[in-house]
Amino acid sequence: MNLEALVNPSVLTQPVYEPGKPIEDVARELGLDPATIIKLASNENPFGPSPRAKAAAARALDQGELYPDGGCVALRARLARAYGLDAGQFVIGNGSNELLELLGHVFLRPGDEVVMGNPAFAVYKLVTLLFGAKPVEVPLVNHKHDLAALAAAVTPRTKLIFVPSPNNPTGTANTEAELLAFARSLPEHVVFAFDEAYAEYLENPPDLRPLIREGRKIVCLRTFSKIYGLASLRVGYGYASPAMAALLNRVRQPFNVNAIGQAAAIAALDDGAFVANCVRDNRAGLAQLEAGLCALGLKTVPSVANFILAKVGDGARVFAELQKRGVIVRPMKPYGMPEWLRLTVGTPAQNERLLGTLAEVLCG
Ligand SMILES: *Cc1c(COP(=O)(O)O)cnc(C)c1O
């Protein structure tokens, strides 16, 4: 009997996630010195983690022989204090990607429907398909989630709705008023997963806690991978009603989050000044990119996040030419936008290099 005959059919048809290329891979493939390559492809923080988070991570390594605290007790307590919620309302994941998968474990069965925007974060669709559920994709309007259209796509089979704000890859956000009205409009049988991966970059992030306190079926997802600069340590978290958090905690692995990541995450939360500086520097970097792209005559989508879409024509070609010159960005063909690139805001010097290299590639 061949192997495929044994496999869960949704595994055989499962699409593969295309991540931003690691610097080492590009260096090897193109024969470049890794030290000369810049990566502005995965919305990582160009300023790295807070020094306090790095120190805490190093200290945690001293006890590397011990299993981590499987309950993430200290991190959940720290988050509870920050949010004014109960520690039992938090679930910590191996990145918020894991939490997306846990939602699938808890809620999805073959035949269920999951409503999401298009283009939106690719993992929503991957998780949906992995559990044999059906993605129902609702086109964005002016690159922004059309919440009324998403709500209208709900059927009796809908289990989950994913909304990111700011959205990846478009960098657009919905207002708090829009999101609250949308959440209130959803029927009882739908769980609203609100992805706040880039919320820290917003001046006033929408606050859905009043609805969580009312007992609505909402899970808010955050991550230490973006503004906190800890993508390599894989820590994300969700907050929800105690009942919802308990369900998500029930389906995770006992030691899903490593001790180094837990320690770094707590220290990162304690360093508010670092985050504030990153927000400020990101705004300046975004303005630098917007101005430079505009000067090159490129259309962009106004962004409130730490990345920006730019329309460059033949996205695959420009991506490849930039990469040859040691600048890694993200082509948007997998998101159905082949003429666009997604550019992560870097340091001022990285932004300058990106703009200069782009000028060279586009104008010869
Ligand atoms: C980067 C990102 C995430 C999560 O990343 P993790 O590293 O798994 O925490 C989640 N949602 C969106 C929209 C993202 O862009």
CATH class of the largest domain: Alpha Beta
- At the fourth level of CATH, the homologous superfamily of the largest domain is Type I PLP-dependent aspartate aminotransferase-like (Major domain)
What is the count of distinct domains? 2
The CATH architecture name of the largest domain reads: 3-Layer(aba) Sandwich
Overall mean confidence score, pLDDT: 97
> How much helical structure, as a percent, in the residues?
40-55%
Number of strands: 13
What hetero molecules are in the model? pyridoxal-5'-phosphate
Query: Helical region count?
Result: 15
For the report, how would you describe the main beta sheet? 7 strands, mixed
> Strands of the biggest beta sheet: in what spatial order?
2-8-7-6-5-3-4
Low-confidence stretches: none
Task: Determine Rg (CA atoms, Å).
Answer: 21 Å
CATH topology of the largest domain: Aspartate Aminotransferase, domain 2
Question: Could you say which overall geometry the principal axes of the C-alpha atoms support?
Answer: globular
H/E series, N to C? HHHEHHEHEHEHEHEHEEHHHEEHEEEH
What is the terminal separation in angstroms? 56 Å
